[in-house]
Structures are given as C-alpha cells and as structure tokens.
Amino acid sequence: MELTKLEAQVVELRSRVARHADELQVGTDVGATSTATWLAHQTRLTRSAAAGVVHLGYDLDTHDVVRDALAAGDLRPEQAVVILRAVKELPEDLDPDLVIRAERHLVDAAAEHDAKTLRILGRRLLEVVAPDLADQHEADLLEKEEAKAAQAMRLTMTDDGHGKTHARFTLPTVQAAMLKKMLLAIAAPKHQAATHGPGVERRPGPERMGRAFAELIERISAKDLPRVGGTDATIVIHIDLDVLTGKLQKAGVLDTGERISPSQVRRLACTARILPVVLNGESEVLDVGRAKRFFTKAQLTAMAIRDGGCAAEGCDWPPWMCHGHHWTRWADDGNTDLSNGGLLCPRHHARAHDPTYETTHQPNGRVSFHRRC
C-alpha cells in the first residue's frame, strides 16, 4: 500500500516538473523540437509517453482537487487520468463551482472504486452536480460517440492459405452488443448440450465463441441476404455428382475461388439447395430468347460457372460481384440467351455501354475494350 501511494506521489511530482520545464522551454537550449522530445531523450521514455507526462502536468495544474489527492497518494495515476477526462467532458459553460464539486465527488468515489468503475461513474457525473442538465448532456455525448464509431467501422479478413481466415473488426457498441448476444445464445451451455450432447457446462470461451460465429453465419437464410449482380449473396460450390454421392474424393470449389474438402461439401449439401448443371449439353432451358429483358438466376449461375468472373481480359472480379450483360443489346434485338450474355464487373459493364469504346471478343471467350479512334 505504501509503495502504491509513493508511486502516485512520484507521478504527480514528475508531471509537475515536466509542466514547469515546458513553461521554461528547457529543451530549446539543446535544440529539442519540444519538451516532450527533450524529456523522452533524457528519460528514455517514448515520445508519446513523455508527451503524456507533460499533458498530465498541465491538466493537474488546472484541477487542484485531483492534483492534491494524487500528491497525497490518495489516488492511483490511472484513476486521476479517468477523473480528469470525465471532468473535461463536462459542458464548457458549466459553473466552475460545479466543476470543483464534480472533481471532489469522483475523488471521494476513488476510495471505493477502481478506474474502470470511475469511468462509468464519470459518464453520469452531471446527475450528481447538475441533474437538470444531465439528460441532454448525455444525449449529446452519445451522439458524438456514435458518429465517431460509425466512421471508425472496419473489417479486415486475411486467408492464411491453410484453411483459416483471420479477421479484425471495429463495430459501434450497439451492433457489437447485438452480435455478442447472438453468439452467446448459440454458445450457451443449454444450446450446446442440445446440439452436441450433455456435459457442456463451462462458460463460453474464445473457441466456443468462434464456433458460434461460424454457426451464426451458416444459419443466415438466403432470403434474408441482399442480391448482388442479380443473384443471392450466397456461396456457390461447384462439385461433380460423384463427389456429392461419395463415389469420388475431389475438392469442391467455391465461387469465390477457395477450395474445400469433399466431406465439407457433403455436410453443407445436407442443408443447401442443390442446382444441377449439365455442362457441354443443350442449354435450351437456360435460353429465354426475347421473353425476358433480364437474365434469370439460373442463367447467371450458368455464366458464373462458365466465365468464372468478369469476362474482361485481366479482370479478377468474382462472379458474384458482376452483372449479366447482353453482348448484342436488348434494344438492338439481342436475345436473353447464354450465347448472347456474359459477366462483367461494374467498371467493365459501364465501358461496354460507353460508345467511345469498342468491344472485341477473343477466341478464348474473353473480351477486351479499346477506345475508338
């Protein structure tokens, strides 16, 4: 306890000295670009850590209650940082006496609560010192946070080439809460016992949550997914009939390019819709002539199998992100048939309709675009 108290006192002293050094511009005598840079060089701290020490010194200088508590060893450094942040988030036009009262409230609460709890209490600080302003202030803070969260949303997925994909994501709190609740429902002991047998009673850990995430993805119905390029945004697996019936051991190929084992193919086929496609045969069922303006789902699936993606030379866009295009335009009496259709990504589809470009069909079934002279 005494060591912890001494640590807090040292932090307060160090930040006060760092602030004073910045006021005197100590680093300029040795050519340092800033006090933080000078302090980092002198103490072997990183520049960001040194800048934090200087900033803390200035924050403590304007908040006497927090500074005195830290100097007395009654606050932990991380508690002080949380309190200062909570006080600075109060309305700028708040009465100074109320700000001091807010500081004292959190400093007193620090005797019973750690920094994490203080952070929660800090969000409700106005309810203690100015209840009539609390609701509006909280609403304003939440709107700002949600706007920042919406801009910070990210998802990256990397296939390691060994059957695993690693992902990192950033979600707003509400969507993260939705996802967590869904996963916990699937990973819950009762659900696990019902699907895998009794004996699963421990709390869900990372592995169980990962399995729950995979199960959640498989549970999403195709009818609930948006349409991409005229077809459902579902995975299509290309396999031979003998693989499906177990007569042949051969990898299945996803329309996104990945390959999966025969056993995985057969497992997915238990709940998937199976569409038979006959290659090198008559395509009478898939040709609708002038009866329809747009290509059907069956035709788009056939194009995906035949073209494997955008038909433009050098383009690697997958089939599920492409559009069905009439080589002879519908307006020019072109039929909605496989022989008159192909897949093009949005960029090349726009180019195919651009009169400044000419489309050339290559012997290998691909097309190229050249600007007209």
TrEMBL record:
Highest taxon above the source species: Bacteria
Domain DUF222: 6-307
Name recorded for this polypeptide: DUF222 domain-containing protein
Species the sequence originates in: Nocardioides conyzicola
